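Suppose you are handed a protein chain with no further information: no name, no annotation, nothing but its sequence. What can you learn? This example shows the usual starting point.
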Amino acid sequence: MGMTKFLLHIPLLIGLLLVPALGWADFQAAGVDASERGDYETALKEFRPLANKGDKRAQTILGEMHLLGIGVPRNYEEAGKWYRLAALQGVSQAQYWLGALYYDRLGESENYPEAMKWYKLAANQGHSDAQHVLGAMYALGKGVPKDYSEAVKWYKLAANQGHAIAQYKMGISYDMGHGIPQNYKEAMKWYELAANQKVPQAQYNLGLMYGDGDGVPKNYILAFMWINLAASKGIEAAIKVQTKLEERMTNKQLAKAQRLAREWKPKEE
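A reasonable first move is to predict its three-dimensional structure. Written in structure tokens, the prediction is:
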């Protein structure tokens, strides 16, 4: 169908002030209860003394509070201070966010080699977001020579942990032959995994592959379904492709495709 497929490499920064999300279900500081109630002023008073005594969990949480402006004014330098203290104690979440501060100039000056250092420390501990961002840095040549093979290595580690965007990047890598031999069937597999996690760019590319017959028999019904799902998420290119597909489909095919799009639900793993 000749439409350009989406290439998404820029890392997205999302922070959550959730102790369970950090894997610290046994962290029973009084600040946890306060934060769950939304009483961030009390949480701050509880966490700060612990952090000052060297508690790496409290230090990480203070970093997130200052990064997101939860209970305190947003302050990237203060966030970096607390993240660094926790990162030096081996907390992968803190290492990841310290890398993000260097990468995205949220408080520290832009420093890709320093970002790479902290991301790699987190990635080697299995932090999937860090693995994904490392892949993106190698793909873009940020702080390192561009190396698609190295990018694929890190994308795959994250993708195998269920990281949706990394799965999408694996699809692109196989689709375009970046750092790995081109293989449309493998591309389809990874796109579908990401599409099932509602990544609209993956849904769009999956639709194009069904429309073009790349790695799969050409199927306008499934192509329309995936393109329609992507269009509903605001992918402008999908709207144009949807119109072209409609011109090639019978009324019966179109009705079925529209029904499939309406009824679509992510597959349960």
